[in-house]
């Protein structure tokens, strides 16, 4: 490839990663913002910043304004990608926490699929302007839901804490046991010193850090962005209509993610995560062998089918476990007093991993197309071992019970 081609690929990688850089900045500050402003306050701030980002993109007349819009949008995504799973985990009943947390990932894939479809009919400026709509709906919708009872209790707002818990559980529900459990747990936490970043690696917290950061790293390094970015090219090379392929891709994501949301509180977290990582290994191997056969002119008639099958297998198994699972585990394993810093670190790892894969994918493909996906397959194998050895089952357990078991 020419020097110009290499430079073009480099700048393409940089431009494509700007949003993830903004998201990393958002992740660094998300925990402190959520602890200071509350979970609702952090989400409301995120919606305002995201609206500003979309408007900057819509109004952009020069590249720097476009870049600014992407950074602002990324920053807001970095905040909300941390706050929403944590908020849902804190307000959900034990038996529904997995399903409700998974609806976050389901909403994300529905939104992405909607953007793919709408983007086929409108220009990018109109698409950017439409991005302001969900931001406005979020801002307004937050006025109609209660704040996290655990955050209210942690900040000494006892009346608001009980009112929020009552509103979430129902007017006639017995909240006495849950209320006393949360209050007793917070009483213990209040005796602990103020948390710093170093405290995340104390004996009482390091297991939660290893579990959540490790799982989030594997979520990205199994190659999800590489698959998403290259799916259109795979459909083209197979002679399949790329627009139709993208729509089918989105439908599969939505369907399987919905299935995962229904299963996660029945089967548990560990089985779905194990199955998901194993399926990702298979999907990467199918894509890798399709490129290997093509490079060596072997079984060329099988190459397109292997590639398409690999992409569909991969996205199905990612959607059923590794898509939502790491966010759910993150929301469950951190005690309240370290959740701000710990969750921020986990979210930073998510977006750092996303940036690394986004930036390196083009270069890896120039090195070896089949080698790239064999490498991702090896990471999937490591992820399977990590899940088996390290991830606890949290299905149906109170958050305080999970935290106590990790410290035992």
Low-confidence stretches: none
Our measurement of the CA-to-CA distance between the termini, rounded to an integer number of angstroms, reads 57 Å
Mean pLDDT: 86
| Element string (H = helix, E = strand) | HHHHHHHHHHHHHHHHHH
Oligomer: single chain
Total count of helical runs of at least 4 residues:
18
Work out the radius of gyration. Answer: 22 Å
The counted number of beta strands is 0
In terms of DSSP E residues, the strand content is under 5%
Described by the principal axes of the CA atoms, the overall outline is globular
Range of helix content: over 70%
Reported for the largest beta sheet, the result is: none
Structural class based on helices, strands and sheet pairing: mainly alpha
Structural features, described:
The structure is a single chain. By secondary structure, this protein is mainly α. It is built from 18 helices and no strands. It has helices spanning 3-16, 18-59, 63-91, 97-119, 124-130, 132-141, 149-154, 158-169, 176-189, 206-221, 224-237, 242-267, 269-295, 303-322, 325-333, 336-367, 369-390, 399-407. α12 (242-267) runs antiparallel to α13. It is globular. The model has no long low-confidence stretch (mean pLDDT 86). It comes from Nicotiana tabacum. This is Sugar transporter ERD6-like 8 isoform X5.
In short:
The chain has helices at 3-16, 18-59, 63-91, 97-119, 124-130, 132-141, 149-154, 158-169, 176-189, 206-221, 224-237, 242-267, 269-295, 303-322, 325-333, 336-367, 369-390, 399-407.
